[in-house]
Amino acid sequence: MLQLEFTVEPFVEGQPGPHVTAAVSAAEAIGARVEFGPFGSTCTAAADAMPQVIAELVRAAFANGATHVTMHVAQSAP
Predict the structure, then answer these.
(1) Is the preceding peptide bond at 16 cis, omega within 30 degrees of 0?
(2) Cross-referenced InterPro entries, in alphabetical order (predicted)?
């Protein structure tokens, strides 16, 4: 399993816009478990699914008004 930390901007505290919610929905549609956070979100997915999660998340974010997406991928803690 891999863990993806991501932030979709522009950031408005307490008011995630469609650029954020669409990105989260795209990751969840592929089967990733997303933990939505106040400043960024985390999702976990199988290593073979993570490239698709990343691609769909980025597509959805920018298609819905994102100006910047930051990502960090690491092995999940056992």
Answers:
(1) no
(2) MTH1187/YkoF-like (IPR029756)
Answer for the pair 49, 4: CB distance below 8 angstroms, yes or no.
no
Q: CATH number, domain at 36?
A: 3.30.70.930
First to last CA, the chain: 9
The residue range of the domain holding 54 is 2-75
Contact 47, 2 (CB under 8 A): yes
Q: How many residues does the chain have?
A: 78
- Which amino acid type is present at position 48? D
User: Could you tell me the pTM of the whole model?
Assistant: 0.89
Closest CA to 35 of 15, 6, 66, 75: 6
Total tally of structural domains belonging to the chain: 1
DSSP 70: E
